[in-house]
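#lab-general

N.A. 3:47 PM
ok so I finally got the sequence cleaned up, no stray characters, all 157 residues accounted for. can someone with queue access submit it? mine expired

B.Y. 3:52 PM
send it over

N.A. 3:53 PM
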Amino acid sequence: MTNLISAEGLKKLCEEYDQLWKVERPKIVQGVADAAAEGDRSENAEYIYGKKRLREIDRKLKHLGSRLKVLKTAVPPVNPKVVSFGCWVSYEDEEGEERCYQLVGPDEIDVGSGRISIDSPVGQALLHKKLDDEATIRKPGGESVVYITGISGTRPA
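B.Y. 4:20 PM
back already:
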């Protein structure tokens, strides 16, 4: 797993960690304490749900904490000549369909906004390619050949 992240992605992870640690967790801890004070915990839904939610938050905090320790901020190239971390890559598939993705670390994946992992099969196929190069993407249904039509340091218009 790649330990690279953009400055924007790192900021979002830090904000999520702080939100969980400083806001969500104290609120749930207080709710559990209040529910426990009401008496019988075995049938107290608020207490049971609160403990479950607290475990989920603690798991997420542990995961985020361990990732934040190993992540390295990478600056995307301004005028890239080859596909690398942070680049926006446009390509055309065999059916003539155009797609555009930014290659990011696994902590920043958001396919809906065009961000895919550099470790994904598509990311690996595009990595180190140049403009007009051919790339072979391995999919469960077979291979697909695509042609690189653009490489940019910023999202194309």
